Amino acid sequence: MIRALYSLVMSGAQPLLRRKLRRRGEAEPGYLEAVDERFGRYSGPARPGALWIHAVSLGETRAAAILVGALRRREPGLRLLLTHGTATGRAEGARLLREGDTQAWLPWDTPGAVARFLDHFRPCAGALMETEVWPNLTAACARRGVPLALANARLSAKSLGQALRIAALARPAYGALAAVWAQTEADAQRLAQVGARVSGVFGNLKFDAQPDAALLDRGRAWRQALGQPVVMFASSREGEEAEFFRVLQADRELAHAGRARGAIDATAPGVRWLVVPRHPQRFDEVAALAAQAGFRVSRRSGWSDLAGPADAAEIWIGDSLGEMPLYYGLADVALLGGSFAPLGGQNLIEAAACGCPVVMGPHTFNFAEAAQLAEAAGAAVRVGSMDDGVRQAADLLAGTGRPAASAQAALAFAGAHRGAAERTARALLELAAPRP
Q: Fewer CB near the terminus (10 Å): N or C of the chain?
């Protein structure tokens, strides 16, 4: 009964979805691509039997890329169906495609759209990445005998509370999954509370990511040539950048009030500030915020690959996709985006794999265990506010030997938690294998 009511609401909201897609498409044209697929209408033939992986957005697609690599090592001729929900996810996913693979939007979760999706593609099995559990989708897969897993699964305490408030809808949705492979024991316990049958705790796929060596080396070469410390605000989110610029602006005003240096510059003289926004559609906005705060701005899109960042600018903006290893190589320490506002934090594992220590704010519930382990290993430091974060980063730079020691701790932390990709690939291939 509750799912019928949910389906009615989802069906009635379709005109609103079309309007939202048009608005999003004004800023990100990718949202205007193949709009009919959002409603389960697909053009062209589809060869049945592909292994289906759903990665809603950019972060999930990057995790899926690690899994795809492990799957292809085991089954080189594997055909994949990749589905997404955001334009950045779809653009990133296109880089994973090989001959015989297919890419599409996952449809809006109505019974008709889901049925058309499954009728068209007829996958042998599917894996939803991390959190994407939809009631009609899981029910339809279970009814049709399509094994559907939740891979790299996580569920924060906040999300658990939300799911339990709609338990009549959430429990059947999680219960219909054929397998759930959790990142941590804590995730497994929370997933079980909402009705999932957890099949294993495999760890976080993102620990198995290998940063692009060429990009990492280029960033490190730029840092060495610069000869000045660099602090990066990595994967910053809306609202956080304005607070970050406020802290830097206030410190500059201390210097203008008659002091030779502000508190930050006195601790770490000549520090350079790099901001890499989480969402590419906000690159222009963040650059404008920095300029409005009175800072000279230079953007990565204007840099030479040989010369590197513009030395005269006070704020550098990392306005490119796929270059996080370069930015982490350039930085001595990184502030963790999404952790200074109640957004749950972004992925700190990539920073660790690049040997870049992290200063994180109070909000890391999306990656709670990884944040705790990083802190315990000396790869990350937790602070309570943006003011404290900026000053802690400067303190790390100032401490004798501390940046190098923290970088080594970050690399050791990343290396100690690998292996989830092979475990997940093996389990997913077993799930997809034909039953006798």
A: C
Same domain, 220 and 292: yes
pLDDT at 259 over 70: no
Task: Tell me the two tokens of residue 356.
Answer: 């870049």
The C-alpha atoms of residue 125 and residue 69 are separated, in whole angstroms, by 18
Count of Cβ atoms closer than 10 Å to residue 104 Cβ: 22
60 labelled catalytic: yes
**Reported pTM:** 0.81
Report d(CA 424, CA 200) in Å as an integer.
9
Give the CATH number of the domain where residue 143 resides. Answer: 3.40.50.11720
Query: Domain of 118?
Result: 2-203+419-432
Q: For 32-52, how does the pLDDT look when each residue is reduced to its tens digit (9 = 90+)?
A: 999 999 999 998 888 999 999
Q: How do beta strands 333-336 and 297-299 pair?
A: unpaired
Instruction: Write down the catalytic residue from 26, 28, 37, 60.
Output: 60
DSSP class of 281: G
Q: Please tell me whether residues 246 and 381 are part of one structural domain.
A: yes
Clarify whether residues 344 and 428 are in a common domain: no
User: Which strands make up the sheet holding 179-182, listed edge to edge?
Assistant: 102-105, 80-84, 51-54, 125-129, 148-153, 179-182, 198-201
Is 118 in contact with 146 (CB distance < 8 Å)? yes
Whether residues 11 and 151 share a domain: the answer is: yes
One domain, residues 38 and 116: yes
Quick check: 152 pLDDT over 50? yes
Whether residue 208 is contained in a domain is answered as no
Q: What is the pLDDT of residue 366?
A: 84
Average pLDDT of the chain, as a whole number = 91
Residues 6+ apart with CB under 8 A from 326: 212, 215, 216, 218, 219
Q: In terms of Cα–Cα distance, which of 52, 367, 7, 366 is closest to 172?
A: 7
Buried/exposed 271-297: b ≥16 CB within 10 Å, e otherwise = bbbbbbbbbbebbeebbebbeebebeb
Question: What values do phi and psi take at 144, rounded to 5?
Answer: -90, -5
pLDDT of residue 270: 80
Q: Tell me how many degrees the CA angle 81-87-92 measures, rounded to the nearest 5.
A: 60
As for how many domains the chain has, the answer is: 2
